[in-house]
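We include this case.
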Amino acid sequence: MQPSRIKLAAVLAATIGVNAAFVKPKVGLLHVRNTSVAAPTPAGPYGRASCPCVGIDNIEGHAMATLKDGKQASYPKDIGARCEAWDKSHHPKCPGENWCESKWCYVDPCNCEDVGVLPKTANYFPGAEYQGKPVHFSYATCDAMDSYTEEKSNRGRFEEIEKTCATHVDVSQWGQEDCRCVGISPQPGTTKVSIDGKKHDFPSETGATCYTWDKDNHPDCSGASPPSWCTQAWCYVDPCKCKATTPPKTSSYLPESNYQGKPIYYSYQTCGGTDSYTATEHKEACVNQKTNKDCGRNSKCAWDGKQCLGKELVEVCSGAWSAKVILVLAMPLLTLIY
């Protein structure tokens, strides 16, 4: 093993609180004094950290997927957003095929490494994209074998992904590079969002791209003199990957939904829009809580010493991780050393 890799392994081991008196390469294992850590780390509900699932999880409704033979089948609206055997109860060939019980999810092909098998282009929703690239799926990130994909579909996949990842991304549609939108678009049908305690139908792809989603859908935007926020573009974002100068806010439209296990956040700034909505229409937003005490009353908020923000921005995305979190994130890297 190269000296630089030995040093890297020692640094990582020290970081997670393990005595790295000696690090010896051996297939599939990192050996330290009195400790052996098996690799690879099992996939979580949203896949491996090196190839996380994408899409909005836990949203209401169903979507009609287009199958290989051109027929359609009804699937949950949040299909592909987490590791699950999505076909088991929804594909007309299931049960009966060996892939029916296998878990899979949608992934970003440009953010999918170290899972052993390259992701494949998804076909259930023709034309669907994630951050300006065709939606891909992966069984490997969910610790499952892919017996669904035909062998001929595997040829040239590396070159295909390489070309896909070199594609220019339109920031006016998918948000600024340092704060991309996180939904999948286009998607057929509608879904339910919460407004003042009531459920309203919005397009299924709401928040997936930069768009004036409220203009034709929010009840307050249908009058003769609609509020200014009706014509402002916004989208859902990952709070931990949004470096916009104005922090994103937790969504009131999808209070029970999540993205990779984190509550849904939205941003106007990444779409070039002005946020006049949060101050007047989203009273429970963390940024509207002006004291530490008020901030503490909302389970989704945390006080950073100066202001109230979404809890993820303060406790998860800040870098103040526990040793356990560091271990989970470090294990995929440690396995590459051997």
In short: The longest strand covers residues 190-195. The helical segments are 3-15, 157-165, 171-174, 277-281, 292-296, 311-316, 323-336. Residues 1-38, 320-338 have pLDDT under 50 and may be disordered. The radius of gyration is 22 Å.
